[in-house]
Amino acid sequence: MSRILDQRILLLVISFSVSLQSTKVLSEWKKCGDPECEKAMSRVQAITDYLGPDCRYLNFKAGEEITVYSKLSRENENLWTGSKGKDFGYFPRDAVKVEEVLIGEEVEVLTKETDFLCLHEDKYTFE
């Protein structure tokens, strides 16, 4: 009986740590094409396949086109955010090459908590 209880506690701890990781703030700052981060910054092409660690990340295959809307800055400059079709999320900048720059100047703004939530079928996932 205590063995089953120990296993359930372990599963609960693992589940909780995964939940915390997927709501973690990845950076306090980001760079965008406008203060609201609505304007597309660039169009990039994937140079490698990428599978993100959780639902906040954009998965893609080499050759796919991605529209970039923001780039994390200061603490975590390697992650950009963008969309491919109706999918949206973070991805490493070294997994893509820039095809076309769509803005003249980047604006640095504070991130929001909502920047780091998972989106599934037009609904926020709170963990």
TrEMBL record:
Record localization: Endoplasmic reticulum membrane
Signal peptide bounds: 1-27
Keyword flag Acyltransferase: no
SMART domains assigned: SH3
InterPro entries: cTAGE_MIA/OTOR, SH3-like_dom_sf, SH3_domain
Topological relation to the membrane, as annotated: Single-pass membrane protein
Main localization (coarse): endoplasmic reticulum
Protein name: MIA2 protein
Organism of this sequence: Catharus fuscescens (Veery)
Gene name of this polypeptide: Mia2
